[in-house]
Amino acid sequence: MSAYVLLPAAFPALVFAHFVALLSPGQDFFLIVAHSVRYRLRGSRYICVGIAIGNAVYIAIAILGWTTIRSNTVIFSVIETLGAIYLVWIGFKLMKSQPYETISDAEVLKLAPSVTRQLLLGLNSALLNPKNALFYMSLMVVILGREVSVLQQVSCGVWMFLAVLLWDLFIAAIIGRPRVQTYLKQCIHLIERGAGFVLICFGVSLFLS
User: Fold this and answer.
1) Mean pLDDT of the chain
2) What is the pLDDT at residue 13?
3) Segment 35-61 mean pLDDT
4) pLDDT of residue 164
5) Among 51, 85, 136, 155, which one has the highest count of C-beta atoms within 10 angstroms of its own C-beta?
6) CB–CB of 8/148 below 8 Å?
7) Cα–Cα distance for residue pair 18/45, rounded to 1 Å
8) What is the pLDDT of residues 3-20, one digit of tens each?
C-alpha cells in the first residue's frame, strides 16, 4: 500500500502543528511532572497512557465528525466546569507537598499511585479539557481539509496518539532518572507545589473564560 494512500499531502504540516502543541506545557504536562518528580516513571507511566487514551477519544470524535461538544453550549460548559473543578482539586493536593525524603526503589513501588489511579488521573485530565476536542477538530478540518479520506484520518489519528504517548513517557522517564532526581531532591516539593499552582491557575482560567 502506497504511503500516499495512508497519509495525506498535509501530513507534514499536521505533524509540525501537533508537535508544537506538545512542546507547549499544559495541564497534562504539569500533572506528569508532579508525579514523575517524586514517583519516577513507575508512578507516572500510566498517567501518560491515560492522557494518550483521552486524546485518542477526542481524535476519534474529530474523525467521526461529531461536533456536538463544539456546537452545544451546555455540554461544552458542563465539561469545562468539571474540568476546572478537577484541576483546582488536583492543584490543591499538590500544593500540600512536603519536603523530599530519599525514597528507595522499594518505597517507590509501595508509595506510587496504583495503575488504576494513574490511568484515571491521566484520562480525567485529558477528557475534562474540552480544548483538546477543539484542537483536534481544528487540526482535522483546517490542516487536512475536506479531501482527506477516512483511512488517512485514521492514520493521522494513530500517529498523534503515539506522539502524545511517547512524548509524555519521554518527559516522565527523563525526570525520573536517578541523576536528575539527585539534582531535584532538594526542591521536589517546590516543583510539586509549583505544578499545583499552575494547575489551579488553569482551573481558575476555565471558570473565568
Assistant:
1) 78
2) 84
3) 89
4) 94
5) 51
6) yes
7) 21
8) 667 888 888 888 888 887
| 94, three cell numbers | 499538590
pTM score > 0.85 for this model? Answer: no
Residue 121 one-letter amino acid: L
| The residue type at 130 | P
Q: 17: which 3 cell numbers? A: 502543528
Q: Is the dihedral of CA 53, 55, 60, 66 positive or negative?
A: positive
Per-residue pLDDT tens digits for 28-39: 888 888 888 878
Q: At what angle do helices 45-64 and 150-175 cross, to 10 degrees?
A: 160
Distance, in Å, from the CA atom of 122 to the CA atom of 164, rounded to the nearest integer, reads 12
